[in-house]
Every structure is written in structure tokens, then in C-alpha cells.
Design a protein that fits this description.
Order of helices and strands: HHHHH
Largest sheet: none
Number of domains: 1
Number of helices: 5
Number of strands: 0
Structural class: mainly alpha
Helix content: 55-70%
Distance between the termini: 66 Å
Length: 114
Amino acid sequence: MSRDFRLHGAPVDVLSHEIAQEKAAALGRMGRALEEALARLREFDAALPGARASAQQPRRTLVTEAGHALWMFVVQREACGLRDSRTVMRDYNVPGEVQQCMGAVPAAPTRAGR
């Protein structure tokens, strides 16, 4: 007996199965994006321990990017029914400063004359 829902399932079951697959795939993509953003931040910190004032803006950018990736991952987890984000913070070892800017999107610079 085939386990392929497309061959034996009702159309609504097929659709539900495909939606669940896409949710899982998106969750994986968001998790990998978070891992990559956190890795970039950790690499920056390792390369410049006690970063000088001149390095603060690039670091803030990395923290903001990691915060956005964290937000996207948490939202996708919630869409999958996983509501407790404490495990994410612990398992991914998310720094407090990244958690604090979760979802924060910096304001776009304004152009003169507008």
C-alpha cells in the first residue's frame, strides 16, 4: 500500500499534507537563517574581542539581523503550533541583546528634501 497521499487521499487531505510539509520546510529555513546570523555575530565577537568604538555600528547591524532572524523563526514556530520560545533561546544560545531586539527593524534612512 502506497503512503503517497496524492494517490489515495481526498483532495482536502492532500492539501493539508502539502501545507504541513511547507510549514516544516519553512521552519527549517528559518532555523538555519537564525543559526547563520548568530554564527556571524559570534565570529565578529571572536575576531574583535572588546570591540572598539569604530566597530560598534557593524556589530549593532549583526545584532539587529540576528534579532530579525530570531523573530522570523519564532513566528514560524508559532505557525506550526510551537508556542514556547524558551527552548529556542536555550537551544540556540541566543544572547540577551538579540532577544531584546527580536523583530526590531531599523528605520530606513530618510533622504534630504522629502
